[in-house]
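Batch 3, record 17
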Amino acid sequence: MKTFLTLWRKELAAYFLSPIAYVVMIFFLVVFGFSFWLLVSVLVQGPAGVSVMQELFGSLFFWITLLVAAPVLTMRLFTEEKTSGTLETLMTAPVTDTEVVLAKYFGALGFYLILWLPTVAYAVVLRAFSPLTASVDLGPMLGGYLGALLVGAFYLSVGVFCSSLASNQIMAAISCFAGIGVVFFAGFMAFLARSDAARDAFAYISSVSHMLDFARGLVDTRPIILYVTLTAFMLFAAVKVIESRRWK
Amino acid sequence: MIRVSHLTKRFAGCVAVDDVSFTIERGEVVGFLGVNGAGKTTTLRILSCYLPATSGSAAVAGYDVFRDSLEVRRRIGYLPENAPLYPEMRVDEYLQFRARLKGVPAAQCRRHLPEVKDRCGLKDSGRRIIGQLSRGYRQRVGLADCLVHEPELLILDEPTLGLDPAQVIQVRELIKELARRHTILLSTHILSEVDATCQRVLIIHEGRIVASDTPEQLRERLHAGARTVVELSGPPEEMPRRLESLPDVHSVRLEKEDGAWRRYVIEGAHGTDVRPAVFELAALNNWRLRELRQDKNTLEEVFVSLTSPAPEGDRP
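Prediction for the assembled complex:
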């Protein structure tokens, strides 16, 4: 546990020492700021048809940001250590492969949560300035954040896995983007599927509808289980990849 | 300290280490010598638990490198080739991170780190960013990292690679100083380095250990004292003839003429010393003598003869 915390602290700190993290942060905040401005400009025209949080957590902006941020945040985790050779110093220290993978993953997750932190201000502003009738409920807000955490946690775990496989950052980023893109667009296949079974299956993994549910304050355990197990599986696979140099 | 038996490592299509066995006792400083690609780094990586062996076994301090990998890693300080470091960290940050990673308690870390930095010549560099350090300083940080947890064994892969001559001397001095407290296994392809720092040499060639001895004995094993160089001034036709007639002398070759002086290289029988006889001959004939010495084989010659594909006739 001590080793894990040491590694985790280093990984989280590494984000703040690299320019790419600040670029992602700026990108994230600009897009979300714009999305919030758009939302407010709709709200001033009177009560809107959709829930406020659905607009914030289910919008195109949310998905674009997430699909771009996850590969960029995770691409360097293992590839950088491989190219600079520090993986050798790291793995010859008394640390287990699992500790290294988890520390890197939770470092990325920690930075992801920090990305979201400023957006709490939007919710506070909305609550403070909107009339009581159009006010923001706490339930949808917490649901929205929970959804963002679950989907983000899964996307980042795909990124960790791709980074453990790839030999350079660009390959890691592109394969992660492709991976989470496939999962993301699979949800839309529900509209195209011919058979009912396929439609149900695609609907079950549709991240977009999961997020809309969460942002409505509807916390279903099925998507929670789905994302937690997918995340755990991707991390398990990453550990095996790192371990593989021992049996290759 | 290190016990390696029948270690083999195969990569796809090639055998990097081929049935290697050796032992290193506690307190020894051993040089692992070989040309590039001989299998040095692979062997060291197996010993430091980075790579597994294909077959055979290796144990460090009684722990198997594969089964008790964590125990082994706690006991070694491993400096990979080129001393890879995190460029974005500061020297102090990095060393503290590594110390914590290796399980050094915080209190001991506070006491011990300044001392380690001092020994590695990093006393005033704690605040500097690693990415901005010169090659020599990076190497020192790498060495300091090896020492933070006071390991019993240091494994250094090419510790002087890419350093300038002054830095090479500094690193060698440091290694000699470290040898008092630690067992050291260092790899190199530079022969003078082994001469300067090691008590014992393991020569590896194409994945096999071809020699294991002290640098002096390795030199002696190859025609010990067999070659004598003499510079004489006397009758040029008579001198080589008379020299050749001495006992134990195989051949006499004129190497250089310098006015009246002639330099001869005398090849003698294995394990003999012809110098007294040469002196007496010169004195008897009133030849003038200005140099008489035994030519020690350099380690380079030993190395070439051990690793050359066709064995020479006088190879022991």
